[in-house]
Amino acid sequence: MSQSVTSAANTDSASDGLQALGLALPELRDNPYYVHHRTVGSSIYISGQLPYKDGWLLGQGTVGRDVELETAQELARHAALNCLAAAVQAVGDLDRVRIVQMLVFVASTPDFGEQSNVANAASELLIEVLGENGRHARTAIGVAGLPLNSPVEIQMVCTAV
What we know:
Elements: H1 14-20, E1 37-40, E2 43-49, E3 52-53, E4 56-57, H2 69-91, E5 97-107, H3 115-130, E6 137-143, E7 152-160
Parallel strand pairs: 5-6
Antiparallel strand pairs: 1-2, 2-7, 3-4, 5-7
Helix pairs in contact: 2-3
Domain Endoribonuclease L-PSP/chorismate mutase-like: 18-152
Protein name: RidA family protein
Organism: Streptomyces himalayensis subsp. aureolus
């Protein structure tokens, strides 16, 4: 992560931080087979989110073969944004969200080896938006394939603050 990460700590709220980045939380479409989040106590379990925007999957393919690192990083940012939208559905306000753990799946070739660099883009977004509440434990895993041939999927555990 770069040393020049600006965060919501420099703004009035996490929503202001999001807006300063030119981003808005997307609306998540309901799915008949699963929920986007499940709350247990103050913990919020976010279902795996793909890089959808306005109902469209933003990319398909395997990182290291069909998808470049920079594209995968942008897709990871979109998936993280969808996770934030699910967290806000659960708690009602972005300022009440603290990321505990993020699990990043990257559909990649066996020799790719830069899954953590894909995940860094999502981590950076969370810190830019949430400040210290965006820092988290994290795992980045290379996998053979993901739903709908998506290059990236992100799952999170959050807590309400």
